[in-house]
Amino acid sequence: MSERRIDAVAKATGAAKYTADVVLEGMTFAAVKRSDYPSALIEDIDISVAKEIEGVLGVFTSKDLPGGANLYGRRVFDVPILAEERVRRVGDPIAAVVATSREIAEAAAELIDVTYKELPVVATARDAIKPGAPLIHEKPWEYKGAVVTPEMGINIQSIDTHGSREAAEAALRGAAHIIDETYITPGDHQGYIEPQACIADYHPDGSLNVWNTNKSPYRLRDVLSAVFSLDPKKVEIMPTVLGGDFGGKGSPGDAPLCTALSILVGKPVKMVLRYSEDLLSTDGRHASEIRVRLGVDKDGKLVGGIFEALLDGGSYAGFKPVNTVNLHGIVDAAIAYRVPEFFVESKIVYTNNQPKGHMRAPGSPQAAFAFESALDELGRRSGIGAIKIRELNLLSNGDANPYGTVWLENRGKEVLSLALSQPRTQEAPKGWLYGEGIAIYARSMAAVPKTSLRLRKGENGKVIAEVPIPENGAGGQTVVREMIRSGLGIDSDKIEVKQVSTSLLPTDAGVGGSRVSLGVTVAVANAIKLWKEMPADQELVEVTTSEGSDGPSGAYSAQLARVAVDPATGQLKVLEIVSAVDVAEIVNPKAHQMQIDGGTVMGYGFAVMEDLLEDGGQPWALSMGEFKLPNVADIPKLTTALLRGGKGVGPNNIKAVGELANCPTGAAIANAVEDATGARIRKLPVKAEAIYWAMKEGVSK
Description:
Blueprint: H1 8-13, E1 28-34, E2 40-46, E3 56-60, E4 71-72, E5 79-80, E6 86-87, E7 93-99, H2 102-110, E8 113-118, H3 125-128, E9 156-162, H4 165-173, E10 177-185, E11 197-202, E12 208-212, H5 217-228, E13 235-237, H6 255-265, E14 269-272, H7 275-281, E15 287-296, E16 302-312, H8 328-331, E17 341-349, H9 364-382, H10 386-393, H11 412-420, E18 433-444, E19 451-457, E20 463-467, H12 476-488, E21 495-499, H13 516-533, E22 540-545, E23 554-565, E24 572-582, H14 589-608, E25 614-615, E26 618-619, E27 637-643, H15 665-677, H16 688-697
Parallel strand pairs: 1-14, 12-13, 16-17, 20-21, 24-27
Antiparallel strand pairs: 1-7, 2-6, 2-8, 3-7, 4-5, 9-17, 10-15, 11-12, 11-14, 15-16, 18-23, 19-20, 19-22, 23-24, 25-26
Helix pairs in contact: 5-6, 9-10, 9-15, 12-13, 14-15
């Protein structure tokens, strides 16, 4: 099997075409004047100086938007293209400049003078739900797609619950040992290499071509059609390579603004964010405050639990795509364990912070940090032990999880054992404290997503596979090639895989949710079958898959962190992270390993570095010097152990891996710190100062 990535050579040589690389005839450039305040009324916008700059083609505010269209979103339409009357976050777009160059547009935008009347700021999720808190949105239930009602309370984006609070409370009252603690995580950013970018080209006949850093082209088409009352058949999202995603490129981004500007100036409009703008204005991971109550009986068996998550959704709900506008990973907090009575409440609220959306396994890193930390603490405090409490309560085959589902198999105990069996390879520096911590994560397999694919004959015996999915760096298009190579028995160099625009294939659910490989393998398998059966004079076959499932299935991962702590300063060194992963068949081993390593590094960054430093409604980490991401020098030794032979899904018997390793890593590291020092850190990122004072004062932080 060939393992060479389809996109590798083009990316390494600079030939890959990203949105920022697209050049159109007559193209113009846009820049935005953004709010300096997290909460304020707009009293006046003075564009007089900006519009006189040579090269400026127009300066526009919300009153200029075509057809009065202003609100958009992935599910809830509460995001303004340009702010009207008030701003709700630092970075809200207030006015846009279109010019003959990017530099002129940016310079002119700086010359727009906005007069504000400051309003009270809601800086945290806890503040947002206090009685009498200022309203971020007056009537959020009136937005198109809203899932809230007036009865839910103030500043609510969504509330999702599972189970009975009363039954869980009763179970906890009868427990032999109980833990009741709160765990905190900060706002985060996906850290993709390519910043957000867009080009919109509107034509007088009502047609629209869009190039955008977006992983869900068909949903983007539908959103733009709805916002501007366009015929969806005339809206074409063009193919481009994505320079990373991790959940951050599912939103429309600046496509609604660029579309509006193209309509206004009658020319193609291009907008590419500087990375400081990207950190300021796009949708990252929700900050969380999660209270966990767990109880066990005298034998160490869990009897019940209550999991209450309060999440900072920021100024807008429109960056979340799911029907509940909630985070599925929060609700699935204890999915790996047998918990007879488990109640979950996930509450997302509006604040004056940056809007939050999806980031690799939305909600799961926060939930795993809280649940696996609490379980670890309960095991240590009760005397049962951090390992034993997991062995006693992980699901066995045939067990129902807390949500009533029985998977095809449960291999959490085996994954735990595999992680613990990996030999220690790294030593702590002399005089430092050494510790180990474990954390488990389980994820249900996504249903087969709706997608489409076309195989057609090329020259000289070539097979051309046309796909609707962007290549976001995970290797999805390489999976397509490998399946065709194997299924048709032809050489890889005879296969061309390429993304096509939304006008050339009927549908796709978009990249994300650990479902790409499952979707494409089903589609390719169906296409190969038709290809083998088609008459000699037929040139192509096309397939469309519908949503479906092979049955309830899931995958497990166990992260084992080995750390050292300097007792004099609290400095933390993560020496090694072992990733034990539950797998079935593997289509492309190299890409599979890259997903495990990449996920582990993201989990490591979440645990010890990443923080948008949101304070008082202002994000302070607005450069890569302030927003810390792991680099090669930071990364600990990574070890992978695969538990093979699992029962997967789809024609290739696979288990999703893209969102397994990142989720439990934060808890594993925090658990290892307690093992080393006796100090429990309940707030991420884990900092030397917190460890130092926790050790010195003998209290947890």
